[in-house]
Amino acid sequence: MLAPARIIEFDLKLNKREWSYWDYNFSDTDDSIDEQTAVEETLRLFKSAVSKQMVADVDVGSYLSGGIDSGSITAIASSKVKRLRTFTCGFDMSSTTGREANFDERRDAELMASLFKTEHYEQVLNSSDLSWAVPKLVWHLEDLRVGMSYPNFYIAGLASKFVKVCLSGAGGDELYGGYPWRYYRVGNSINQEQYFSEYYSFWQRLVKDEDKNSF
User: 142: alpha, beta or left, given left = phi > 0 and alpha = psi -120 to 50?
Assistant: First the structure.
C-alpha cells in the first residue's frame, strides 16, 4: 500500500520513518541523444524486454485489450511463436450508452488478433459478475477496492485454461502518459497540492467525503 518508490521503516520502539528512494526530475532536459535515436533505442529496448519474457519452458500467451500497450506486446510476441494465444475480456454493452459504450474493446482486439494471426479467446462480463467476484477479490487483495482487478480476475481464469504464463500491457499507459482525458484537467496546476486537488475532484464517488464518517 506504499506510494511508488517509497519505504517505511520502523525501529524496535515502533517509531516510523518514511522516505522516497527515487524520483524523476522532469525539469532537467536530456540532450545526450536526438529524438530519432531515442525512438530507435526505445523500440530496441521494448523488443528486447518482450523477447526476454518469452523465454519459458511452458506455453506463453498474451492479454489483448485492443489498446496500443497490449497490442504492441502481442505484435512482438506473435513473431516469436507460431501460434500465440491471446485473451480479451469484454463487457455486455446492451444497456449502456454514451462514453461507456467505448469500454468494450473486443472489436479492436479481434482486429489485432486477425492481423497478428493469434489463436484468440474472449470472455464477456455482465453486471452480476462483479458482485459474484467481490468476496474473492477482497480475500485475495485484503482490501476493499475493485478497479480493473475484477475483469483481470476473470481474464486470468480464462487464460489459465490454455497457458501458464501471460504477458500483460499493464503500466504502459502510465509510463507513456496514455490518459490525456485525465491529465488535461490538471495541466495548469502550479504545484502538487493543486494537481491532486483538481485530479481528485474529477472523479465521481458513491459516498461524498463529508459523509464518509457516518457511512
Answer: left
